[in-house]
Amino acid sequence: MMSGWNVSDKLYRIKTPTLILVGDQDMISPKKARVMADKLPNGKLEIIPDATHVSLRDNPEYFFQQLNQFLTN
Questions:
Q1: Residue 29 φ/ψ, nearest 5 degrees
Q2: What is the C-alpha to C-alpha distance for residues 48 and 72, in angstroms, rounded to an integer?
Q3: Which end of the chain has fewer CB atoms at under 10 Å, N or C?
Q4: What is the pLDDT of residues 6-54, one digit of tens each?
């Protein structure tokens, strides 16, 4: 989280389907991302294998596969 800035207690207000993409080696741990996704009423978490915080660069094939699947469902 950004220093002193935390809105996790308000995530339940976001009703829009939301995809959280996080690398398996991300600086934001998959465990923390799961907590965030679980607080979103329509949240979905995808963990990108072999990826850091820049999962789009590290594993673009998997990243775009997950993004396209989310957007077309």
A1: -65, 145
A2: 19
A3: C
A4: 888 999 999 999 999 999 999 999 999 999 999 999 999 999 999 999 9
Supply the DSSP symbol for 24: T
Residue type, 45: L
Which two three-digit tokens encode residue 48? 């990108």
In whole angstroms, give the CA distance from residue 26 to residue 42: 23
Place of tokens 């799961």: 34
Spell out the residues 6+ positions from residue 60 whose beta carbon is closer than 8 angstroms to its own: none
The SS3 call for residue 12 is: helix
CB atoms within 10 A of CB 46: 19
CB 66 within 8 A of CB 45: no
